[in-house]
Structures are given as C-alpha cells and as structure tokens.
Amino acid sequence: MTTYLLAAMTGLLTGAGLIVAIGPQNILVLQQGVRRVHVNPVIVVCALSDVVLIVAGVAGLGALVSAHPAVVTVAKIAGGAYVVALGLLAARRCLRSSEAITANADEVRTASRWVAIGSALALTWLNPHVYLDTVLTMGAIANSHGNAKWAFAIGACAASVLWFTLIGRGGSRLAPVFAKPRAWKILDGIVAVIMVGMGATLLFSA
C-alpha cells in the first residue's frame, strides 16, 4: 500500500512539475478564465487530453513514438506554425486602439463554444512538447515504478486536472483587473512574445 501511495505522490509532483511551465495550453485556459467565456469546456478538454496522453504513455505508446521520430518532426512543424500564428494575432490585438480592444472583447464573449474547444484541442494535440512530457517522459518514469505504474499515472492525471481547474477558475478572479483595455494590451503583448518564441523554437528544432 505504501509503495502505491508513494508512486501516486511521485506522479502528482512530477505531473505538476511538467504541466505548470508556461505554455500555449496554460495561456489559453488562463485567457478563457479571465474572459469568463467557455471556461469549463476548455478545462475539460485540456485536462482530459492530458489524461489520455498520460495513460497512453504508461501503456507503452511512448516507445512507439520514439521508434518513429518523423511523427514528432511533423508535429513540431504543424504545432510551431500554429503557435506562431496565434502569437501574431495576439500582437495585432496588442497594437489595436482601445475601442477596437473593447469591441474584440465583446466578440470573444459571443464566440462559439466550439471555437474555444477547437483551440484547446489544437494547442494540445499539435504541441509536440505535450508528447515529450506526457507520453515519453511520464511513460518512462511511470514504468520505472513497476507494478505501481498505474498509481503513478493516477497521481499525474490528478495534477493535470487540479492545475487546469486552478488557473481556469482562478483566472476569473482577475477579470476586474482586465476591465481596462490597457491590461488587455499588456496581456496580449506577453502572449505574443511567448507564443512567437515557442513557435519559432519548435520550427527551428524541426
């Protein structure tokens, strides 16, 4: 029993260490939380996707991905291009006038739930770092725990669910701060730098 509990705690801490790093997924969930728009569906998609990938890694998919590096290369190119495009869109929003930012905020509030879900799916499944972290790294560490590997997986999955819920629901508390257009300019500027930088890194590494 102690072995399984320790494996679960190790999975929780390892999962938290890999997921908490700033990335496209986290930025999207935080943005939706701040806007208070389709927060729950985005949290569910991101958390459930991580759970599926972690389970796949523990089940042995990581070895299959390692045997076919071309898959990772394609994911880097597609994911890098997509993330750069999102960064450029954020940069354009940052350079808009205050009136345009207010209008854009109104448009976002009425945007389709499926658009938000589609963005969450794309930023998850087109991001090669997700495969490296959840499938390869998590899978390798989990399997080092022998019979307790699924306890490790449960801990890692719990970390993902807790983290996305925290930043998604917690982001809504920042909404009053973003009542001013200037705050959105700053956020979009930060998002643009992070997204373009990450996307360019992915493209060059491919």
Automatic annotation (TrEMBL):
Keywords, A to Z, come to: Cell membrane, Membrane, Transmembrane, Transmembrane helix
Q: Which residues cross the membrane?
A: 6-30, 42-64, 70-91, 111-128, 148-166, 186-204
GO cellular component, as recorded: plasma membrane
Q: How does it sit in the membrane?
A: Multi-pass membrane protein
Q: Where is the secretion signal located?
A: none
The protein's matches in InterPro entries, at most eight in alphabetical order, are given as: LeuE-type (IPR001123)
Question: Origin, by domain of life?
Answer: Bacteria
Please state what the protein is called: Putative amino acid transporter
**What is the species of this protein?**
Gordonia sputi NBRC 100414
